From TrEMBL:
GO terms for biological process: DNA integration; DNA recombination. Keywords: DNA recombination. It comes from Clostridium kluyveri. Pfam families: Phage_integrase. One of its GO terms (molecular function) is DNA binding. Residues 70-277 form the Tyr recombinase domain. The keyword Repressor does not apply. This is Tyr recombinase domain-containing protein. SUPFAM superfamilies: DNA breaking-rejoining enzymes.
Length: 286
């Protein structure tokens, strides 16, 4: 439970079943709530092993019910085309197009370095991710955060992803614009070799990026969909083009094929119907 408490904020010996239940209720209301994480917290017995407490107050707590899964958001083909066309001269044009064409997670795309891009082979390597974390200070109650570099989400998330050739050309143009931005910033620019840094070369704050994305959607008169919708749209377009499940799993970096299947279970039936419909010409004379 250390992840969810500031050091020294709560005395272990004061833990009770009621407190354990209340804390799990709080987790349920937060976006990172999930059965796996609650199970992990419930089974934390380190305090018992270290004799800070004589029993784990979470042992007898009934886990709150998981909220129903939200339906994933996907752009229609028309919306996707409209969005891309609306990005002319937009600073994040190349970033948004790359996500639509590769399905990268937001933390993965902002952590890309130019050394990860292979222009000749039209591919990129996902080797790191950026994440904003809270900084814990025992002597202060301040709520400071910082962007840190981490390993990708799972072992499978470390992957090589092919890039459509048209997007490779977009990246070349983006690199030229970035050099112009660097010259304009002068000495304030710190070159971290990032593909999509902020205006002075530092890691892009994903909060600012999602705001920029929302404004771009509004300008294009497209109903709001979360940033992750671009990743879901990438996968959906692949399924619509009859790319098989294992290939999509590898491109997305999912840890198992079951995860891919579970997420896109509503898409697969439609794809199967369209695939079978292509056989109609064989039976045209029936």
């Amino acid at each position: 439970m250390q992840k969810y408490y500031k050091n020294g904020e709560f005395k272990a010996w004061r833990c009770t079943i009621t407190i354990g239940r209340d804390d799990m209720g709080k987790l349920k209301r937060k976006s990172f709530y999930g059965k796996t994480k609650l199970d992990a917290i419930k089974k934390k017995d380190e305090a018992v092993k270290e004799h800070y407490i004589i029993f784990n107050p979470c042992d007898n707590v009934t886990l709150p019910k998981l909220p129903p899964k939200k339906e994933i958001q996907i752009f229609t083909v028309e919306e996707e085309i409209t969005f891309i066309k609306s990005l002319i001269n937009h600073r994040n044009r190349a970033l948004f197009i790359l996500v639509l064409g590769t399905g990268l997670r937001i933390g993965e795309v902002v952590a890309l370095k130019w050394s990860d891009i292979n222009f000749k082979n039209c591919e990129l390597k996902v080797q790191r991710t950026f994440k904003r974390v809270h900084l814990i200070n025992n002597e202060s109650s301040s709520n400071k955060t910082a962007i840190i570099e981490q390993q990708p989400k799972t072992v499978n998330s470390i992957r090589t992803v092919n890039i459509p050739s048209n997007i490779i050309e977009e990246l070349r143009r983006h690199k030229t614009r970035q050099l112009e931005e660097k010259l304009k910033a002068g000495e304030t620019y710190i070159d971290n070799n990032l593909v999509f840094p902020n205006e002075i070369g530092q890691p892009t704050d994903t909060r600012n990026l999602t705001r920029s994305y929302a404004r771009a959607l509004k300008k294009a008169n497209i109903p709001y969909k979360n940033f992750h919708a671009m990743r879901h749209t990438f996968a959906t377009r692949l399924f619509e083009r009859k790319v098989d499940l294992p290939a999509v799993q590898k491109l997305l970096g999912h840890s198992s094929i079951k995860i891919t299947s579970d997420i896109y279970t509503h898409v697969l039936p439609d794809v199967k119907v369209k695939a079978v419909d292509t056989l109609n010409d064989l039976f045209a004379d029936l």
